[in-house]
Structures are given as structure tokens and as C-alpha cells.
Amino acid sequence: MxxxxxxxxxxxxxxxxxxxxVDVKIAVELHRAAAATIxxxxxxxxxxxxDMRYINGxxxxxxxxxxxxxxxxxxxxxxxxxxxxxxxxGNERNFLFRDFLKFVQALEPDWIVFENVPGILEKNSIEYVxxxxxxxxxxxxxxxxxxxxxxxxxxxQHRKRFFILGSRNHEALELPSSPNALRVSVEDAIDDxxxxxxxxxxxxxxxxxxxxxxxxxxxxxxxxHCSNNLVSDNSPLVVTRYKYIPQGGNWADIPRExxxxxxxxxRCHTGIYHxxxxxxxxxxxxxxxxxxxxxPTQDRGLSxxxxxxxxxxxxxxxxxxxxxxxxxxVGNAVPPxxxxxxxxxxxxx
Length: 349
Prior knowledge:
- The protein folds into 2 domains: 2-176 and 334-347, Rossmann fold, CATH 3.40.50.150; 186-332, Alpha-Beta Complex (DNA Methylase, Chain A, domain 2).
- The protein is 27% helix and 13% strand.
- It contains 11 helices and 9 strands.
């Protein structure tokens, strides 16, 4: 089976698809740094950096000897409940799913996988889901859809994502079910990674200790070091605030006299200054600057590599660009282990 990844981001879905046995031939991504990351890590995949709305050169995939899956997640800012400023029916990015459907109609794949945030199912967005499903059914697909939590599939993070799986020439699919394995904790995931300080800027460093968990051993392989060990450089005041926050705590644990730059601290999002619990899966890895997630035991933000581990990217997978762009890529990604479970439903048919 061959695959085309639309709106690929840094390649989380492509990586999971390849782990499930899909030969990903093409990835299309608008943002330059994310496209550079997928090109760097997926050497045999043709990466096209450009706007989906103006790409027309994939027609040769209509004549093929292997089954084709088209997959992708159109940008979700318009549907995300964490982005109240830009969500809503007036956002033109709500309609990028139609470009996804345009390629499905043109290339007539055997399978489709559509991914997005669960917020797309809410009152202001559900009509888009109905349009997508109606169009796919008209194109001959049998569909299954629903929300999956990455933590149920070996990812050390509670991250829910909405999927539509479509089959044109086979029986209807089902979403993968949880293997009922023990959940992977933050500590399991990152405990062997380098010990860092606020503002750490040396990219490649040796591990601080042997990997203790099966998860860390799998992510690490036989490498002696890992890259992307970069941490945001927060001000001394912000670092001082960190010291007051216990695992599982947030801004509410900081003395009010230290939060005077906030007009009303009580209106802060619960993800602001949230320190992760070491013995549990992480909360959602999202926008670094909005969430300000704190390391379980060190008074600093997460490194790019730690966040990548919590997303289930292996350590050989390197992110390209400035620290801010790397953080954005990791925060936006689909966890590869979750994608592997989804694509496994296709490749076993």
C-alpha cells in the first residue's frame, strides 16, 4: 500500500503509517520548517512545500499497481477549543478540508484517513463533519469515525483526536480498540533524557542514565545521544514562580503577589504553569507559549525532545528550525503510535 500525506506537518501521521506498513510516497505541507523536518526524516518520500489549494501535480497516482491511501489533518485552529480567538464559522481555514476532498475525488484512492481535533464535533463545527462524510459516501466510501485517546495506544499523553476511516473497495473499517496495556507515564517516557536548565541551547547531548522503561528503550534505540534538547529561556521571575508549583499544580499555586502582571490571575487557563505528574501520562502537549508545561522535577519548561518523547516520536527523529518552530511542530503533531494503530486497521485488510 502506498500513501499520500496532505497537510503533513512534521510527519507524525506519515511515521505512524510507515510503521503500519504504508509506503508514503508524497507529503504536502505549507510551512517551510515543518516541510524541512519531514524531508529530513523521510528520505524516500517526496516532500512538496506549498499551499494545498494550488497543487495540481499528483494526477499520475490515479494509475497505479498498489492500493492508495490518502490521509491528513487540515489545520485545526478553527475548530480547536483552546483557540477561542480564531474558531468559529467565519474562519476561512474551516474549509481547507475541501482541498483534502478535492484530491480524494481526483485520485480515487482505495482508503482515506481524515484526522482532526474533537472540537470539530461541537455545535459550531459539526456541519463540516456532516459535509465531509456526505461527500465521502457519495464518492463510494464506507466510513467509520470517532474519537481516540492516544494514551490508550501506548502514548504517554492524554491527547484526543477525531478520525474518519474510509474504505472504497473493502469491507467497512472499524476504529482500533485499545490493547488494554498499562499506560505509559511521563517518568517512563523522559526519565533518561539529559538534565537541563532553563534556556538550554545545546542541541545534541548524551543521555543522563540508562533507559529504565520499555517505552524509553524503544524510543532511544542504541543511540548514545539525542538531539533537540532545547528549552525556552524564561525570565528569572517566571523560573521563580515554577518553584511553588507541585506536580499536577498550576498557576493557582503561585503566590498572588508574584502574579501582579496578570490583570486577573483567576482567569488564567488551567494549562498555564502546569507541572506534569511523573507517574501519569501527560496532559495535552500543545502550544508551548500558551500552555507553559513544566518538567515534573526540574524548574523549567519542557525541552523539544521531552515533548517529542511524550508525543511518541523516536529519538532519531530530528526537528528542524528555530526553537519556537520546533516547539510548534511537536505541539501540532499527531502521535505516531496513535497513527500506527489507526493505519493498522487498513493494512491488516
